[in-house]
Specification:
Length: about 160
């Protein structure tokens, strides 16, 4: 099992960051991972039991189900995915810190058993860590660029360290 986590302070209000993260009409404008992302029933919006289809630029695809949705967090689990994944789940958490958003993306994945599981799990963890760091940095850049003219300086008591 590999656990991947990325954290970031985003200089924008939590509600704006959350809405940007869940706006599937604009998601591919900021998110470098998916080539395509769509909801199974777009008329319902993001809600528990809603399914989403994601195809990465690599060509791999996954269907996920939303298992928890709130303005603070969204959690998913894999329904169908790439041949090498046995299980996959993730959460995106957003905390308000005096008008600044502390965002945390966390994924847990288990690979199907095959040759050299320790090596393949390490490689998968490394790959997903790189992708997660890029995605969260892209969300930060997207949200902060939308707030032009409102530069805020924030020094957290306990800074986040990138992995």
């Amino acid at each position: 099992m590999a656990v991947v986590e990325s954290k970031q302070f985003i200089h924008a209000p939590r509600d704006e960051v959350y809405l940007a993260s869940q706006d599937y009409d604009q998601r591919t404008d900021w998110d470098p991972f998916p080539d395509e992302i769509r909801l199974e029933k777009p008329e319902l919006g993001i809600c528990v039991n809603q399914h989403a289809f994601i195809r990465a630029h690599s060509g791999l695809s996954m269907e996920v189900e939303f298992i928890q949705v709130s303005p603070r967090s969204t959690s998913i689990r894999m329904v169908h995915g790439p041949f090498f994944l046995d299980r996959f789940a993730g959460s995106w958490l957003f905390e308000d810190r005096n008008g600044i958003t502390f965002a945390r993306f966390k994924y847990v994945l288990t690979l199907k058993k095959w040759m050299l599981p320790w090596l393949t799990e390490w490689v998968a963890g490394w790959y997903f860590q790189k992708q997660t760091d890029k995605r969260l940095a892209a969300l930060k850049a997207w949200c902060e660029s939308r707030r032009s003219g409102q530069v805020q300086v924030f020094q957290p008591q306990s800074p986040c360290v990138k992995h």
